Every structure is written in C-alpha cells, then in structure tokens.
Amino acid sequence: MLRRLLGLRPNANRAVADAVYARIVAAARQPEFYADWDVPDTPLGRFEMLSLHVFLFMHRTRGGDQALADLTQELTDEFFTDVDHSLRELGIGDMGISKRMKKLARMFYGRAEAYDAALQAGDAPALAAAFQRNIRPDLKDWNGAGPLSLYAMDVERSLATQTSEDLLQGRVEFPSPVR
Asked: Rounded to an integer, what distance in angstroms lies between the CA atom of residue 92 and that of residue 48?
C-alpha cells in the first residue's frame, strides 16, 4: 500500500488491477442480486456484494505465484480506497473515516473467513447461513441466501477454470446470477 501511495507501482500493473476491479464491480452490481434475491440496494448491501466478489477473486488467487499475489494486493488496496471514497461521498468526515474503515475491514475479513470455510467444505447451506447472517440479519428466513450461495459456488468453479495468465492480463469473467 505504501508503494501505491508513493506512486511507485508500474502503469501496467495499474491498468490490469483497474480492469479486474472494474469487472468485480460490474459483477457485484448485477441487478438480479437486488431485484430477484432481495439484497438491499443500499450502501451496505452494495458493500456486501462487492466484498463477496473481491473475496471470491482473492480465494481464486490464493496460493498462486508472486505476480498473482501482487495483483490481489493491488485489488485489495483498490477495494478499500473505493470504500473510503464511498464513505466520504456519504458525507462522513475525516474524523469518522478511520473508525468506520476499521469496522468495515473487520467485517470484510470476518466474512472472508466464514465464506472461505464454507467454500473449502463445499457446504452450500453453511455459505447460505453466512450470507443470511451477514447480508440480511433483519430477516428471519431470507430466500436469497440459497441462490446466492449457489451463485458463489458457481463463481468459485468458474474462476478456477480461468488461467492465471488471463487473470494477470486483466481478463476475468463472472457467471450470471440468473437461475
């Protein structure tokens, strides 16, 4: 992150990270999540979908070579920069940003841990329960949790078939959530 703040990352890496992040954002903003699966179309609901897609990309690149690790770090930095900008656009001032960013970072990494455990086990019900707990805790029985868990597992399988070379060129594809 310090390298990024000082502007020391190569332009080629920036272009690739920007391309991948744009694909992640587009995947997270697919209308089916909000219209069909009842993910709240709110700043927090959008954070949840963006977090899920960033996590899924991170999950795919884990254990890869240094170039993939560098790309993943760039994306993580971009994600948190984007979250920071979003908070500022919501009118949160400098005094409140740090506290909220820490809370959102804890939320992200906590979710990543829960989602990773469920994906590693191939446990769609556990993934659905994690989504219920994190995305719609206000609903006793959220009907979108099951379809979202199956979608996340589809994304995991899809990303696994995409080569590291493609990812490093900024070519990443996410399946459609339509079932």
From this structure: 19
